[in-house]
Amino acid sequence: MPTGWFAGILTATFLAATAAFGGLAQAAVPPHPELEAGETHVNAQFALTVERAVLIDELPEAGITVEPGQRVLAVVLTAENVWDRALPSEGLSGLSAGVRIAELRDEPAAAIARFDDTTFSPYLQPRVPAELVLTWAVDRDALADGDEIEVVLRDLSLRRGELVIAGEYWETPVTAATMTLEVTDVGAGADAEGEEG
């Protein structure tokens, strides 16, 4: 039997097997889970429970300043570091890399602060839940009370440096779950409301 026949038989077998398993087209990507407020998403870094979204005139105690014509969109969530070392809340390997608002494209939170003591950019210790406020500056007319936003939760992959880069770092965020939240407009905030009443 000539050698060319073997190549032809192997090619035909490969094509038949490929066709039997759906061809060369990419397999359909399963849809991302759609979570509800209060449900927890767990990945290799964090257990994230998104609670609510509010629109407020300003929130300097959370580490964000706004320009004239802007307001603050604040997302309140509980984050628990499930890894074995402290993780940053901000930066390319931190919590901020894993949370986006679909309507704001790929913009990370402008600031992250603890809800209880307003510590800016906190490091999250292993197995210690922390309630956090993630904030974005948005145009004054971009959102209103009752509008919905889509929170996108992304998983990062752990990489270990070899040769040129040493150490471990988290990278390559991939959308893992989404959540629709209704925005509550709190105006000037609780302090201002208390002063008026």
- The average pLDDT score comes to 88
The amount of helix comes to 10-25%
* Low-pLDDT residue intervals, each spanning 5 or more residues: 191-197
Order of helices and strands: HEEEEEEEEEEEH
% residues in beta strands: 35-45%
CATH fold topology: Immunoglobulin-like
Radius of gyration in whole Å, from Cα? 23 Å
Describe what this molecule looks like in 3D.
The chain is mainly β. The chain has one domain: Immunoglobulin-like. The protein is 13% helix and 41% strand. It has two helices and eleven strands; from the N terminus they run αβββββββββββα. It has helices at residues 3-20, 190-196, and strands at residues 34-35, 40-42, 46-56, 70-81, 87-88, 99-101, 111-114, 123-124, 130-139, 148-160, 168-185. The strands form two sheets. Strands 1, 2, 3, 4, 6, 7, 9, 10 and 11 form a nine-stranded mixed sheet that branches. Strands 5-8 form a two-stranded antiparallel ribbon. The longest helix is centred in the first third of the chain and has 18 residues, at 3-20. It is elongated and about 85 Å long. Mean pLDDT is 88; it is low at 191-197.
Describe the protein's topology.
Blueprint lengths: L2 H18 L13 E2 L4 E3 L3 E11 L13 E12 L5 E2 L10 E3 L9 E4 L8 E2 L5 E10 L8 E13 L7 E18 L4 H7 L1
Parallel strand pairs: 1-11, 3-11
Antiparallel strand pairs: 2-3, 3-4, 4-9, 5-8, 6-10, 7-9, 10-11
In short:
With 197 residues, the protein is mainly beta.
Main features:
single chain; 197 residues; mainly beta; Immunoglobulin-like; nine-stranded mixed beta sheet; two-stranded antiparallel ribbon; 13% helix; 41% strand; elongated; disordered C terminus
